[in-house]
Structures are given as structure tokens and as C-alpha cells.
Amino acid sequence: MVLPKYKAVIQIRGCFWHCHNCKRGTVPKTSQDYWIPKLRATVHRDRRNDELLVSMGYTVIVIWECQTTRPEEFEIFMDVLVRRTLLFKPV
Length: 91
Description:
Mean pLDDT: 88
Distance between the termini: 18 Å
Shape: flat
Number of helices: 2
CATH architecture: 3-Layer(aba) Sandwich
Order of helices and strands: EEHEH
Largest sheet: 3 strands, mixed
């Protein structure tokens, strides 16, 4: 999601596909010759894209899949995130 007014990008990343350090972000035990390079390439692409967005003046906010599993907690998390990241950033 792009918020041009705040020069911010909010991304929700899947823990498995983007190698988050949680129980969902583990590499499969089978076919590791396939999975490890594929997942590393995704992480590398994420890093490159995030750096590009930051160089363009954007704030990059990453929300992990595992942070969205409990609606009540996610609502509080998003409220705090938006207040800290977007509302206090000069426009």
C-alpha cells in the first residue's frame, strides 16, 4: 500500500516467502537445493527494493504475516505503528 501524502509504503510480507525469523519463516527440510536460493533471492530483492524506496524519500513499513493472526492485537499494533511512523513524520 502506498501512502503518497506521507511518502510511506506499507508491505505485508509472508513469513515463509520472505524468511522472517519466526516459526512460519523456516526453510523446508526437503528440496533445500531449490528453496534456499529461491528464498535468498526474495530477501535480496526485498532489500534492494526497500533501499530504492528509502532513497526516494519513502518510509518503508513491513508488517509480517505472523503479526496479523490475532485481530485485536493487530488493530492495536497498527494504531501504534501509524501514530509513530506516519503522524509524526513531516509532510
